[in-house]
């Protein structure tokens, strides 16, 4: 039985999981959830994700939610297939986990606010500026990191980079081109990871 | 000593790592970072944590930051020491992974803002922002409603054993239980039992008494 991914083309969480599935060359069925019809709040969907959000993944008898839990499950389950997304050496894996948590705790929150503002229309310029500033200071740290390391976790592409794909894609397509100015390593890293064939497939369906 | 934790009392993130070290029964040196003198922004500290925040961590030559990355490193590396904080079966561990993410993505944002407003600000003589409190109590209630449902079918968040998915909540829980936000937990019987249980763990008691 193939994996079932419940999501939408505009959800960054769904995009994150799709990128992972494509990298691992795993077949899956994409089931579009009708958000505007409130499908994500139906009891049937809540049984898959009690927070009533996309994505959710069904793999036979187990259903998972939270995109970053799903990607880790897939990366581990299909080890040896497609791209290696997890460092094997325990020390390198510990470092990979640092940067995965950095994406989760520092990059994601301001990015989510910016994407919300873009989708729902600018509520207040001041609100957005606050999050832009936060994101800029995170990118400053990334700039420093990427001068010492080709990818966030080390010398190869891993989930630490992959988790950033929806966010970096969004930043690159927004009108505020200032993101990468003065941050040549972030710019080069973004160009590199966004050109990966697995991501190009996902980006083709993305609304921005 | 091989393991060093650079932290501050009152830092929930530092406490998260201390809880984990206690569960794993590991010896370590706690190095207090002088936040009031901005030691966390010094070049020396920034080389340990480029975000200039506590905690930072060392195990021999390995330097890490981000409390949840440190706990995961400890749980896996010292799997055969102290209490189990992860599970071996891959599908069961995937479910634990889901609830680790839930704490990080849903509980922490609302919970830590409430802890800051209701518990920490008063200590420093700062004024609580009631609007922020109301907003985040609402958000936390939505999360706790999901927890109530989950804990009615599962003894712990990740499954039938205590794991990182539960442990990661302890520091913020500790602060919230000393404030009016406690009522949000008390109002939900399964959440209430779970919260009491995990806070009574000997390792946690040790971590907060040290």
Automatic annotation (TrEMBL), chain A:
Protein name: glutathione transferase
First-level EC class: transferase
Highest taxon, organism lineage: Eukaryota
CDD domains per record: GST_N_Phi
GO cellular component terms, semicolon-separated: cytoplasm
Family: Belongs to the GST superfamily. Phi family.
This protein's record includes keyword Transferase: yes
Entry EC number(s): 2.5.1.18
GO terms under biological process: glutathione metabolic process; toxin catabolic process
SUPFAM superfamilies per record: GST C-terminal domain-like (SSF47616), Thioredoxin-like (SSF52833)
Coiled-coil region: none
Lineage of producing organism: Eukaryota, Viridiplantae, Streptophyta, Embryophyta, Tracheophyta
This protein's UniProt keywords: Transferase
Domain GST C-terminal: 89-208
GO terms of molecular function: glutathione binding; glutathione transferase activity
Catalytic activity: RX + glutathione = an S-substituted glutathione + a halide anion + H(+)
Source organism of this protein record: Deinandra increscens subsp. villosa
GST N-terminal domain: residues covered: 1-82
TrEMBL record, chain B:
SUPFAM superfamilies, per database record: GST C-terminal domain-like (SSF47616), Thioredoxin-like (SSF52833)
Signal peptide: none
Record-level GO BP terms: glutathione metabolic process; toxin catabolic process
UniProt keyword list: Transferase
EC number(s) reported in the record: 2.5.1.18
GO CC annotation terms, alphabetical: cytoplasm
Domain GST N-terminal: 1-82
Reaction(s) catalysed by this chain's protein: RX + glutathione = an S-substituted glutathione + a halide anion + H(+)
Record family assignment: Belongs to the GST superfamily. Phi family.
Name assigned to this protein: glutathione transferase
Organism, as annotated: Deinandra increscens subsp. villosa
């Amino acid at each position: 039985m193939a994996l079932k991914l419940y999501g939408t083309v505009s959800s960054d969480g769904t995009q994150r999981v799709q990128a992972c599935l494509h990298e691992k060359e795993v077949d899956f069925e994409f089931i579009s959830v009708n958000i505007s019809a409130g499908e994500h709040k139906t009891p049937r969907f809540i049984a898959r994700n009690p927070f009533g959000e996309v994505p959710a993944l069904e793999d036979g008898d187990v259903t998972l939610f939270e995109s970053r839990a799903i990607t880790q499950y897939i990366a581990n389950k299909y080890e040896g297939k497609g791209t290696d997304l997890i460092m094997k050496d325990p020390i390198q894996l510990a470092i990979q986990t640092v940067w995965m948590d950095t994406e989760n705790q520092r990059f994601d929150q301001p990015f989510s606010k910016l994407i919300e503002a873009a989708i729902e229309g600018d509520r207040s310029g001041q609100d957005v500026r606050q999050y832009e500033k936060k994101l800029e200071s995170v990118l400053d740290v990334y700039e420093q990191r990427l001068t010492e390391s080709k990818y966030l976790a080390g010398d190869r592409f891993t989930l630490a980079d992959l988790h950033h794909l929806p966010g970096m894609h969004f930043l690159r397509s927004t009108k505020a081109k200032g993101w990468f100015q003065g941050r040549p390593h972030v710019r080069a890293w973004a160009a590199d990871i966004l050109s990966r064939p697995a991501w190009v497939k996902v980006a083709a369906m993305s609304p921005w | 000593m091989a393991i060093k934790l650079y932290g501050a009392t009152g830092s929930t993130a530092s406490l998260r790592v201390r809880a984990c070290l206690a569960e794993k029964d590991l010896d370590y040196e706690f190095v207090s970072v002088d936040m009031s003198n901005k030691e966390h922004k010094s070049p020396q500290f920034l080389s340990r944590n480029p975000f200039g925040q506590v905690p930072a961590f060392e195990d021999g030559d390995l330097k890490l930051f981000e409390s949840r990355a440190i706990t995961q490193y400890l749980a896996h590396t010292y799997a055969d020491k102290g209490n189990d904080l992860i599970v071996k079966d891959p599908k069961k561990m995937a479910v634990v992974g889901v609830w680790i993410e839930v704490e990080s993505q849903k509980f922490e944002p609302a919970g830590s803002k409430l802890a800051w407003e209701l518990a920490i600000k008063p200590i420093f003589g700062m004024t609580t922002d009631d609007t922020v409190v109301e907003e985040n109590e609402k958000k936390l209630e939505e999360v706790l409603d999901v927890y109530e449902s989950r804990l009615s079918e599962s003894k712990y968040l990740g499954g039938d054993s205590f794991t990182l998915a539960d442990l990661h909540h302890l520091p913020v829980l500790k602060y919230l239980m000393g404030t009016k936000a406690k009522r949000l937990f008390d109002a939900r019987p399964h959440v209430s039992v779970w919260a009491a249980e995990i806070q009574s763990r000997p390792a946690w008691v040790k971590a907060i008494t040290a």
